[in-house]
Write a structure and sequence with these properties.
Length: about 220
């Protein structure tokens, strides 16, 4: 079974997708983390974030993996834990540029579809329901106000020891929204058959419950067919 969760930055996609996947024993695929890992690989290789050919060369030498940690899934590049390194302001500011490169998207989508073809998966990102898994069984589009998303990111950063001003985070999110929705390749947009959920005034548990209900309804329907 394939579940696609899309939406803008910090709408709660990754947080709820991880919990729902764990509860239903699905595999969680964090596509945003994959693009962030690509951006980190470019940074460490001293390659311009717009140089598609050079980034693809680096990707051929670097293996991106997900592994389950004690509390959460970790991201590794060539066996090194980069879960915190991919969340720094530098990577956040440049991931949109890297993820908009056609060759990079093609490479990542190929990997994502391979994973989805082998397991029950929950995948979150910007274009899962429209491009990566257009035939997903359940499609959800999460939205939330910029202010609430900035506050979530601020608290998340604080917990991880990353210090960034709240107003600066708000500005970054607004910029990211614009970049993601205006890029030529797979822009951020709601799939026509996706269910929209506004998480501005909902707790994590409430969002998890709503998404779980949608998935279980679909599972029951499929088992009867």
């Amino acid at each position: 079974m394939q579940v696609a969760i899309d939406g803008p930055a910090s709408a709660g996609k990754s947080t709820v997708a991880k919990i729902v996947a764990k509860n239903l024993n699905f595999i969680y695929i964090d596509t945003g983390a994959m693009y962030r890992a690509c951006t980190l690989i470019a940074q460490k290789g001293n390659v311009d974030y717009g140089d598609e050919a050079e980034i693809l060369k680096l990707l051929a030498k670097n293996k991106i993996e997900f592994k389950n940690g004690e509390k959460e899934q970790k991201v590794f590049i060539n066996g090194q834990d980069v879960s915190l390194a991919i969340r720094t302001p530098e990577i956040t500011a440049n991931v949109s540029q890297v993820s908009a490169l056609p060759g990079i998207r093609e490479k990542m989508v190929e990997l994502q579809r391979k994973m989805a073809g082998e397991n029950n998966v929950i995948m979150d990102g910007r274009d899962i329901g429209t491009t990566v898994l257009p035939n997903a069984d359940v499609k959800i589009f999460l939205i939330a106000s910029v202010a609430s998303r900035a506050k979530r990111r601020f608290l998340d950063f604080k917990e991880k020891g990353i210090h960034q001003d709240l107003a600066e985070i708000e500005h970054d999110i607004e910029e990211r929204d614009y970049k993601d929705s205006h890029r030529k390749i797979s822009p951020l947009k709601k799939a026509t058959d996706a269910i929209e959920l506004d998480t501005t005034n909902l707790t994590i548990d409430e969002v998890v419950a709503k998404i779980t209900t949608l998935i279980e309804k679909k599972q029951k329907k499929q088992s009867k067919e």
